[in-house]
């Protein structure tokens, strides 16, 4: 039995609710898959700032750095002081955001299956904003080093996926000639080293349009930080919304997995948040652990989680954002039950309204 230390950031808003569901799913893996977790609380975010004065206390950072991996729920207004900072501090340079048509979930097209590979450490998100002549200047950095490693990551991923073997680099080099010009140039250079992969380029405005017009034509999209942030919310919406969109922040030595969505204060505490984005993030986490540790049990567990999520969707055990009546914890329990027993889960009957989990 392998035990992994997982730094757990429960976050704000719906964070603790989707975290609890995800922990119940991971705990369900022990009997059947021989994978166990030591969850280490790593408080961060708005509530943490209120309590301790710091959005990301040193103690939480130490816990994260001392763990095998980190599983993070969304934080609220302090996101820039938490996840944006951690991505830069731990050099988690690749933000991986898959979008895939899921069973019985309304999708713009029936066979969407692509991944956005977003550069995660530079661009406009370095926070270099300065007051200047009655206005503000924001600095955008694009480096050869960061562009090259993200492009290499995208090409390695496309080869692993065995899908349509296509990488498209998204930029705006016709206007941002130097910064996006460098990004595009480096992507072209990396593409030359992968002659079997079909490589193309697309301006970011055209990409926003083509994601709606022909989403099935994409395989791997590689792009800079801000374009990736915006396009991945659009991408999530094509296949059922933010409640189903997982992600990973990957570096050379460490990784953090989190849902794409934010703290969703509008639905916090109501027990209706969709936990599947975070649950699917746990399957990405297990795949990463498997590839780093050579632990086949983790890969099997990751595949089992995806399969249990699909079965849960097929059975209609879903939250209101995708047309169901189930609560956050019911969805988590349904996935966990399928993992432990493979048994069918009762579809909950009609409810008069959303029920609170508290
Ligand atoms: P951020 O700026 O951190 O991304 P936001 O408020 O702009 O935060 P989200 O918190 O992601 O964006 O929420 C956007 C919308 O999507 C809200 O209406 C929210 O209720 C909905 N939403 C987000 N996550 C979920 C979820 N897991 N389940 C159901 N609805 C969700």
What brief labels describe this structure?
single chain; binds adenosine-5'-triphosphate; Isopropylmalate Dehydrogenase; 42% helix; 358 residues; alpha/beta
Describe the structure in your own words.
Helices cover 42% and strands 19% of the residues. By secondary structure, it is α/β, with parallel strands linked by helices. The chain has two domains: 1-98 and 240-349, 3-Layer(aba) Sandwich (Isopropylmalate Dehydrogenase); 108-238, Isopropylmalate Dehydrogenase (3-Layer(aba) Sandwich). Strands 2-1-3-12-11-4-5-10-8-9 form a ten-stranded mixed β-sheet, with helices on both faces. The radius of gyration is 20 Å and the shape is globular. The two termini are 34 Å apart. Bound molecules: adenosine-5'-triphosphate (ATP).
Highest CATH level, the class of the largest domain: Alpha Beta
Low-pLDDT stretches are 344-358
Count of discrete domains: 2
Count of beta strands: 12
Overall average pLDDT: 93
Helix content: 40-55%
**End-to-end CA span:** 34 Å
The tally of helices reads: 12
CATH superfamily of the largest domain: Isopropylmalate Dehydrogenase
CATH topology of the largest domain: Isopropylmalate Dehydrogenase
Oligomeric state of the chains present here: single chain
Structural class: alpha/beta
The distinct ligands, each listed once, are:
adenosine-5'-triphosphate
Indicate the topology.
Blueprint: E1 2-9, H1 15-27, H2 29-33, E2 35-41, H3 46-52, H4 58-65, E3 69-72, H5 79-89, E4 94-100, E5 113-119, E6 129-132, E7 135-138, H6 144-161, E8 166-171, H7 179-192, E9 198-203, H8 204-213, E10 220-223, H9 225-238, E11 246-250, E12 255-259, H10 276-293, H11 296-315, H12 328-341
Parallel strand pairs: 1-2, 1-3, 3-12, 5-10, 8-9, 8-10
Antiparallel strand pairs: 4-5, 4-11, 6-7, 11-12
Helix pairs in contact: 1-10, 1-12, 6-7, 8-9, 10-11, 11-12
């Amino acid at each position: 039995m392998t035990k992994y230390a997982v730094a757990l950031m429960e976050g704000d808003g719906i964070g603790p609710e989707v975290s609890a569901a995800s922990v119940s799913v991971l705990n369900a893996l022990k009997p059947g898959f021989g994978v166990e977790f030591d969850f280490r609380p790593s408080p961060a975010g708005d509530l943490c700032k209120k309590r301790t004065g710091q959005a990301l206390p040193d103690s939480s950072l130490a816990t994260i750095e001392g763990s095998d991996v980190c599983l993070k729920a969304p934080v609220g207004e302090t996101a820039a002081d938490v996840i944006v900072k951690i991505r830069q501090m731990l050099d988690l340079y690749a933000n991986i955001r898959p979008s895939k048509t899921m069973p019985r979930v309304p999708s713009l097209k029936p066979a969407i299956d692509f991944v956005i590979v977003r550069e995660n450490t530079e661009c406009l998100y370095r926070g270099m904003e300065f007051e200047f002549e009655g206005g503000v200047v924001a600095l955008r950095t694009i480096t050869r080093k960061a562009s090259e490693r993200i492009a290499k990551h995208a090409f390695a991923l496309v080869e692993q996926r065995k899908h349509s073997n296509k990488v498209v680099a998204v930029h705006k080099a016709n206007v941002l000639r130097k910064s996006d010009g460098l990004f595009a140039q480096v992507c072209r250079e990396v593409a030359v080293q992968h002659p079997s992969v079909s490589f193309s380029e697309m301006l970011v405005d055209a990409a926003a349009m083509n994601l709606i017009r022909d989403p099935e034509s994409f395989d791997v999209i590689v792009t800079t930080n801000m374009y990736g942030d915006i396009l991945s919310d659009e991408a999530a919406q094509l296949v059922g919304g933010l409640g189903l969109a997982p992600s990973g922040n990957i570096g050379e030595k460490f990784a953090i997995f989190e849902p794409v969505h934010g703290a969703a204060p509008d639905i916090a505490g109501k027990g209706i948040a969709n936990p599947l984005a975070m649950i699917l993030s746990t399957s990405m986490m297990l795949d990463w652990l498997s590839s780093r540790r050579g632990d086949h049990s983790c890969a099997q567990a990751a595949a089992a989680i995806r399969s249990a999520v699909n079965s849960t969707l097929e059975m209609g055990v879903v939250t209101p954002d995708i047309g169901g009546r189930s609560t956050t914890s019911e969805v988590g329990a349904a996935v966990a039950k399928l993992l432990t027993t493979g048994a069918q889960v009762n579809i909950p009957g009609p409810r008069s309204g959303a029920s609170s989990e508290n």
